[in-house]
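Case 553 in the screening queue. Each case pairs one protein sequence with one candidate compound; here the compound is adenosine-5'-diphosphate. For every case the pipeline is the same: read the inputs, emit a complex structure as tokens, and attach any notable structural observations.

Predict complex for case 553.
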Amino acid sequence: MASIQTTAGGMPVLILKEGTKESKGREAQKNNIAAAKLIAEIVKTSLGPRGMDKMLVDNLGDVTITNDGATILKEIDVQHPAAKMMVEVAKSVDNEVGDGTTSSVVFAGALLEKAEELINKDVHPSIIVDGYNASAEQALKLLEKIAVNVDVSDKDLLLRIARTSMDSKLVSEDSPLLGQIVVDATKQVAEKSDDGLKVDLDNIKVEKKAGGSMRDTKLIKGIVLDKEVVHAGMPKRIEKARIALINSALEIEKTEMSAEIRISDPHQMQMFLEEENRMLKAMVDKVKEAGANVLLCQKGIDDIAQHYLAKAGVLAVRRVKESDMTKMSRATGARIVNNLDDLTSKDLGSADLVEERKVETDKWVFIEGCKNPKAVTILVRGGSQRVVDEADRSLHDALMVMKDVLEKPAIVAGGGAPEAYIAGELRQWSSSQEGRAQLAVQKFADALDAIPLNLAENAGMDPIDTMTELRAKQSKGAKWTGVDARNTQVTDMFKQNVLEPVVVKQQIIKSATEVVSMILRIDDVIAATKSKMPAGPPGGMGGMGGMGGMGME
Ligand code: ADP
Ligand code: MG
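Case 553 output:
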């Protein structure tokens, strides 16, 4: 390829390694935009309550059925660098706010599509980028302005917000129950800080088990351990539990070096074993003296110690994960003790009930009925593994949404209402901009319309009629007018109880604009050939980025 070489005094100089592929200028831009748009194309039919689900099959044949933008993109193996950047948008939105992943990709795709129209009219990409960034800033301000503050003690309102995030998922039928669980769980673990509430979702343990129905999903005021009671002779149920959390082993420490003990006299052997026995019994006595009837140990428990614990009527579980120990401490109020010798009754936590129960074929230990626990468990049930997996993902979105509103209690209506409103405002504002920047602002507004437009399309509504009606109502000042995809009408989405945290909408705009700016600024793609890949056609761009399988050149 000519561009890999340059000439110095008539002599060709090779500056890139042989086999390196390069595409420049318009061509590079076109390739990137096409690849990124394709990603948006994949997820856009799954947007909203009437969006379709995707069935993804990995190379081991495992099937995932989902509607979640971030999950869809995580599961498909994207190779083109620009397409990868689109996957990153979904990831960043997922990390920051948890919901709105599909919207962010759809919006970014629309921004690129509109940018391409301008590029084709010879508007320079950097002008588009500037116009987009100015529009995004303006859009964020507008969102801040129209957002409605909420009272975080209004549980009914919180429930409606949680339900909105689940309404677009497989689990929507059960959203009244699941939504309630999400609200109760997040409120339970929320903590007051200087600036409002703080929610650490690490304090909500989600355990899932296929079987039963989604309606059996429960919030447990405590922790569920996927472990069984360590010894058959121990009680399987203890009411008014006094719980010790120990993170050292109830075993005799083996010496670091391999030592050999020579015993010549059977009497010595006897003494040796008795000594070991005595030490283990002393450990169990410590637990008894502290008054514990439940022992949860992060390390091992020796058989002999198990025997003494069983005799003392203590329910014990061993090899509990460290993360579960922390959660248990927050749920029961127990202090995690490193050294058994330090254990006192003050270190114990409490729970109304600790019980081993059968969950399908497994035996799990439930620590429940904790007083004001700062860590809780959601036990997800459902007809099959695929159903509980999707329920788990939907719960994740809803929990994040609840965290978002509790930490920043401001919401907007959904259904494309805020997007349509901002688009209208930006179109007016664009006249204050100069020359070509004006065009970019208008295109940004057009791209925002992609959200209500796709919601309508996915609901089988006529896109043109819907958008016309939406704009007409918006221009009369009805700013919460959006696409009610459930009842296929254009109406006030606040009244329809479709409510979302304003931070989700803000993050969608931020992340999408950011990645689109990055993609538009690229005018040169230099790609080393992958050593594993079969050599592409000589000089062609066919192998570059490896999007061939997805119809990309
Ligand atoms: P995302 O991953 O972007 O959250 P979703 O598939 O969850 O994608 O769809 C979210 C969009 O669906 C938001 O714009 C939201 O306002 C909208 N939405 C949710 N429920 C409804 C509804 N009942 N009617 C119309 N739009 C809705
Ligand atoms: Mg969503």
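Case 553 observations:
- Residues 99, 165, 168, 397 surround magnesium ion (ligand 2) (CB under 6 Å).
- Residues 266-290 form the longest helix (25 residues).
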